Each structure stands twice: as structure tokens, then as C-alpha cells.
User: What shape does this take?
Amino acid sequence: MSAFSRFTPLVASLPSTIPFVGPEAIERQRDRPIAARIGANESGFGPAPSVLSAMTAAAAGVWQYNDPENFELKKALANHLGAKAENIAIGEGIDGLLGQIVRMVIEPGMPVVTSLGGYPTFNFHVAGYGGRLVTTPYVNDRENLDGLLAAVRRENAPLVYFANPDNPMGSWWDADSVIAFARALPETCLLILDEAYGETAPAGTIPSIQSLIDMPNVMRTRTFSKAYGLAGARVGYVISTPGTAQAFDKIRNHFGMNRIGTAAAVAALADKDYLAEVLERIAASRDRIAEIAVRNGLKPLPSATNFVTIDCGADAVFARAIVDRLMADHGIFIRMPGVAPLNRCIRISTGPEAEMALLEEALPKVLESLGRQ
Assistant: This one.
């Protein structure tokens, strides 16, 4: 296949790939509609009715660009967090913000530290800007803080990525350990503390805003894609010191946010009752997934997220077979971690009871077809 001949050497050297194959692509490949979409850690419970009303009202003004300063959303977030608007940067979901952070910090050949098997979109951005990934393995299915710190010091790395709670394993560290890790890093290393699943974590997991707000080498990334049910709206934000947060203004797409998504995020912050209701439903669904797993001889791992990672007790081939057969035979979309030893597991997102019922019916049939009674 022919391509333009003057792409940069870096772009020319990269494979044509994306971190995830989307459920829509899987539907097209298999020519089968998805009956249960429980693989992308979206919220099948959806946004609040008040949020949908705000989006409908905002739609009439969609002919206008969004406020490039994101003034109203920053103000709402500052009130919600107990911070100041200048501590916040807004972006098109955490994925978009990760790309901007890597762009600001990394030049070709620079080392970037992360966990082996951690969130692959971050790795995708590192490769896209020519960074050199340095990884440390998980220990007991949890990101290894000592290993990450040692790698940063050994490599003199300018950037390290750590998710708490973690994707893909659902594990977590307590807030005191996270703060100690952040303060042990060299001031020359920027920590991306990814808190995408912060709302679903148990008490004592997420450091207070004030505990890290004075550290210019810490960026905390958060999203409206999970508990708030707005994955398709693409709204994320960074919390840091004013100087670090304002650095985004030098490179971001100032008209990258959309008016409807911004209105949705402001309304979502205001509807605290609905968030509390959804968090209860997520917790109940986690328990439901765990019960289904145990009933079928599989081992659910503890989870602080809106998904449950399940140890299938074998290898990646067996886990992949479960993923594929659930989709091919039953239209149930789930995913699995990408590297060993994590890829002995499958990962199932929480969702409405109708989707849990489909999983409950299909999983034993799949396991039986694979020779597992």
C-alpha cells in the first residue's frame, strides 16, 4: 500500500496500530451485534437524567465553538475539588491529555517508566513521540512502587506513569503509599498519577487534593468517562500546580472541547445524588461478576474500579479462548490484559443486570466448550 513519502523517520518507523480494537470493529469483523458491552470499562448505567437534559439544552448552541478557556468547567471542578481554577487543565479525556503530557516532556530516545502490562494507550503516546519505554513488572497483580522508583532513579527518567486504582488488574494502593512514592521521586521526574477510577475506589485510596497540590512534578489525571457515564463525551482534566497546569496552554487544541460534553460535565458534578446511586450499582455489579466467576471455578481479583479482573487459572491461550468464544457464540464483549503473567486473566466491566444475566448464562457454556467443567 502506497503512502506519502515524506513522513518523519519516526512516523515511518512505527507500526500502523491502535492500543485497543473497538467493540464496533469487533462487530464488523464477526458480523454479529454485541449483546452485552462489558469490555471497555464504560458505564452501562449511563449519565444522570439531569445530565442528559443539560446536553439536550446545549445542543442548540453546538454551532458555536466551546469556550477555549473552559471557564465554567474549571470553576465547577475547583468547587468540587476544593482547589483553584488555575490548578486545573481540561482536555479531551485522559487519553488526549496523556498525549499532551508526553509531548511536553519527552524527546526522542528519552526513557519513560511505566508498569509492564499497564494502560497501553500511554505506551502508544510514548512511542509516537519517540520515547523509550522502561517497564517494571507487577508484583502480586499490583503495580510495583519500589520497582517504578528504582527504574526512575536508574534511568534518570523525566516521566513515570502510575495508575491508582489500576487498569487492567483493578488493584490499588493506599493514599499514604501513593504520597510517599510521589515525594520520593526526583524533582526532575514528572509523575502522571492516573486516577481515572478514583470515584469507585474504597475510602483511603485517593490522596487528598491538598496533599500533592504543592508538587509541580505531579499531574493527577481524572475523567468523566467512568462513574459519570460520559465516555463518549471525551472530558478529562489534570490537577497540578498553576505553573504546570498552565503549560498545557502552550500546546493544546484550544477549541478541542465540545460544548455539549462540557455542559454534561458541569451538570454531572452538580448531581451528587445520581453519582452516589451509580457507585452503589457499580459495587453491586462487581459483586455479581465475582459471584458468577466463583460459581464457574474462576478466581475474581479484588477490584477498586468499575470492572473485575478474573484469574482463569491457566494461560493466555485459555483466557483468549474465553474472550473470543463469549463474543463469537454469545455476543458478549469483554477484554483481557495484554502481557504475561497478567494475561492469564479476563476483565469484565460492570453493567446493568440484563447484561450480567447474559454473562451468567453464557460463561458456563463457554467453559464447557473449552473442556472446563
Remarks:
- The two ends are 47 Å apart (CA to CA).
- The CA atoms of residues 129 and 298 lie 40 Å apart.
- The longest helix spans residues 272-295.
